[in-house]
């Protein structure tokens, strides 16, 4: 399984403004990240062990812990993983690192972040 970590770009005001915000905070401030606000900063492969299926939640929690240690990979080139970052699995599934846990998301045809409950954007009532 190929895993990529996407973080908001730090070279523009828009990315900096949304960095470290939970889904609730993005909604409160009426901000909606789009796919081009993010860049892939880390890639890894996770192998399934024979006879056992991978538990995605366990993999994501382990990755979060690993990318927050002082000896994390790429520590000189990237910050530690935090709220607002995205885990992409096999180029298909996307999970937003929220203040508690991970929320399944996608990017709509417009490129806007969409919660998997079908909301087109993060504003209440839409």
Automatic annotation (TrEMBL):
<protein>
    <submittedName>
        <fullName>YodL domain-containing protein</fullName>
    </submittedName>
</protein>
<dbReference type="InterPro" id="IPR025923">
    <property type="entry name" value="YodL-like_dom"/>
</dbReference>
<dbReference type="Pfam" id="PF14191">
    <property type="entry name" value="YodL"/>
</dbReference>
<feature type="domain" description="YodL-like">
    <location>
        <begin position="3"/>
        <end position="107"/>
    </location>
</feature>
């Amino acid at each position: 399984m190929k895993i990529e970590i996407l973080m908001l770009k730090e070279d523009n005001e828009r990315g900096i403004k949304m960095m470290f915000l939970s889904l609730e905070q993005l909604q409160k401030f009426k901000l909606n990240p789009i796919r081009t606000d993010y860049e892939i900063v880390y890639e890894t492969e996770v192998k399934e062990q024979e006879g056992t299926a991978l538990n995605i939640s366990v993999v994501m929690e382990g990755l979060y812990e690993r990318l927050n240690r002082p000896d994390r990979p790429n520590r000189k080139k990237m910050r530690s993983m935090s709220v607002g970052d995205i885990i992409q699995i096999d180029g298909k599934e996307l999970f937003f690192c929220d203040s508690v846990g991970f929320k399944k998301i996608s990017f709509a045809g417009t490129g806007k972040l969409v919660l998997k409950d079908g909301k087109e954007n993060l504003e209440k009532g839409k």
